[in-house]
Design brief:
The chain is built from 17 helices and nine strands. The protein is mostly helical and about 425 residues long. The protein has one domain (about 10-419): Alpha/alpha barrel (Glycosyltransferase), CATH 1.50.10.10. The chain has a four-stranded antiparallel sheet. A three-stranded antiparallel sheet has the order 1-2-3. The chain is globular. The structure holds (2R)-2-(alpha-D-glucopyranosyloxy)-3-hydroxypropanoic acid (9WN).
């Protein structure tokens, strides 16, 4: 494993800020130079959270810049293309400019975990900036309205993802069966860096799914009636629930009624308990109407909810702390349970540990006053970045870095963990 000279907290914080400065393009923060040269949606929300205390001006710009990509439907796209740099699949695949609801700035046609209201709440908490809450609030209300109107494909109050990219955890084993049920596609698109994470056939299926949705005019009716990939994911919905609660708290500052947002959160909680729980939370495939019985880090998204019933909380924390997850590795939290046959310590969302999911779990520990768990997550995550740098993800057994270097959310959330 690579050795880095020992750094104290102040130096680590300075390094993190330097990474974020270098990844700022003038209009937004790219997740990492080279591999991800545009603005990614949930990455930006994590950057807002990390910069809230240190650079609130930049945090505000980051959020507004991302929201320039919001569609008239309320959908916040998973990629906003501010630069001309090549990326596949880029604007020529998404063709957002041909869609009446799309903004002037070029974007993808998919969404991603709705972290943004939680990020706005975080920013408010650290700045007290009511004027900014008033400014950003309506866009986030529209984002949530889009999810409840266009994405409640199961009709029970949860938002469905319609593509693995929408989960933020694109190669998670949770999507394997749904992808395998799609026709075998061979476009032969090559992207050397992506090849490391996605076998060709998977990546071609990703592109095929995206193009089907595009060719159907990005229509909600098509998603409901025809689209072959529709999954209720506990991480996506756990984040959405936390963001609904954030909107409920921010609403009075924006002169709005908190009740609809609190009610939405209650609906999501009930639907997750009714539809996704069986000893732990699993994703539900709406096309087979079955739970996808592989336990990944996504299973812990619902823990972000302070209203999660205590017996569910206890059972989920037991799984988290067991040898299936944190109990077996020196560096929590692996992205897939270790005993699963799909677990692979080297492949992105199939095993490695990520700073953003560790941060989300630390947030969950805080909302439930699980102080020891929170401290353990903080210490172990900081140990990862101290030893290996701001890598994209990390081997959960020896902590060595994987994927890109100078990864924005690893730097941003380190700033928050250090505080
Ligand atoms: C596809 C940018 C994004 C993150 C995702 C992560 C990865 C892209 C990819 O990088 O996804 O959008 O190429 O695999 O899985 O969470 O937002 O950092």
């Amino acid at each position: 494993m690579e050795a880095r000279p020992a750094v104290d907290d102040a130096a680590l914080g300075r390094e993190a800020l330097a990474v974020l400065e270098a990844n700022w393009t003038g209009t937004g923060t790219v997740p990492a130079p080279g591999l991800y040269p545009h603005q990614w949606s949930w990455d930006s929300a994590f950057v807002v959270i990390g910069l809230a205390r240190h650079r609130p001006d930049r945090a505000r710009d980051e959020l507004l810049s991302l929201l320039r990509g919001q569609w008239a439907t309320g959908m916040v796209p998973h990629i906003v293309f501010h630069t001309r740099e090549a990326y596949f699949p880029g604007p020529s695949v998404w063709r957002s400019q041909e869609h009446a609801a799309a903004p002037h700035v070029l974007t993808s046609g998919l969404t991603s975990p709705p972290m943004h209201a939680l990020a706005l709440w975080w920013l408010y908490r650290h700045t007290g900036d009511v004027a900014f809450v008033r400014r950003a609030f309506p866009a986030l209300v529209a984002q949530h309205a889009y999810l409840s109107s266009a994405r409640d494909l199961g009709g029970a109050g949860l938002a469905a993802i319609v593509h693995p990219w929408e989960s933020g955890m694109d190669d998670s084993p949770s999507w394997d069966d749904a992808l395998a049920a799609l026709p075998a596609i061979r476009y032969g698109y090559r992207n050397v860096e992506l090849d490391e994470r996605h076998p060709d056939s998977d990546h071609d299926r990703y592109v095929w799914l995206a193009m089907r949705y595009r060719d159907a005019g990005y229509r909600a009716e098509y998603l409901r009636d025809e689209h072959p990939f529709a999954i209720e994911d506990p991480m996506f919905n756990g984040i959405w629930l936390a963001s609904c609660q954030a909107l409920a708290e921010l609403a009075p500052l924006a002169g709005a009624d908190p009740a609809p947002h609190a009610e939405q959160a209650d609906r999501i909680r009930q639907a997750m308990l009714d539809r996704l729980w069986d000893g732990c939370f699993y994703a539900r495939d709406l096309r087979t109407d079955r739970l996808i019985r592989v336990c990944t880090v996504g299973a812990f998204g619902p823990l972000l909810d302070p209203g999660l019933p205590s017996d569910h909380l206890r059972a989920a924390v037991e799984v988290l702390e067991s040898a299936r997850f944190m109990g077996a590795t020196g560096y929590p939290v692996p992205s897939c349970e270790i005993r699963a046959t799909q677990f692979d310590r080297t492949r992105y969302w199939r095993g490695p540990s990520w700073v953003n999911t560790n941060w989300l779990l630390r947030r969950a520990a805080a909302v439930h006053s699980l102080d020891q768990l929170g401290q353990q997550l903080t210490n172990c995550t900081l140990r990862l970045v101290r030893q290996a740098g701001f890598r994209e993800c990390f081997d959960p057994f020896d902590g060595s870095g994987r994927g890109c270097r100078d990864f924005s959310w690893s730097a941003a959330l380190t700033l928050d963990l250090l505080a």
